Amino acid sequence: MALPSGRFFGWVIGGTLPADLAADWLVTAWDQNAGMRFATPATAVLEENAAGWILDLLRLPPGTDVGFTTGATMANFVGLAAGRQWVLEHPTL
User: Fold this and answer.
1) pLDDT at 80
2) Burial, 22: exposed, middle or buried (Cβ in 10 Å; 0-12, 13-18, 19+)?
3) Burial category of 43 from C-beta neighbours within 10 Å (exposed 0-12, middle 13-18, buried 19 and up)
4) How far apart are CA 65 and CA 67, in angstroms?
């Protein structure tokens, strides 16, 4: 596809790591709706383990809340909402 500008990066697709590819294959084969704990208890356990790894990696306290989003758009939305909440709770900082 010809592009008129050399600075257009809208269709740059990143590479895939082997671990990402394996996880994608597992998700596709498993075909689970991970929205509820009772429908997919194994997925809930996997998310809890991943949350623990993230807390360890970032050296955060064990009681810190962790949430997984459905993708980049929702991750940005949640990040903005969390930042807004923090700013509203600390108006003098």
Assistant:
1) 96
2) exposed
3) middle
4) 7
Angle at 23 between CA 17 and CA 25, to 5 degrees: 105
- Cα(58)–Cα(48) distance, rounded to whole angstroms? 15
Most confident of 8-12, 56-60, 65-69: 56-60
Structure tokens at 18: 């082997």
Question: CB–CB of 44/37 below 8 Å?
Answer: yes
Q: Which residue has the tokens 């082997």?
A: 18
Q: How far apart are CA 57 and CA 51, in angstroms?
A: 10
**pTM for this entry:** 0.56
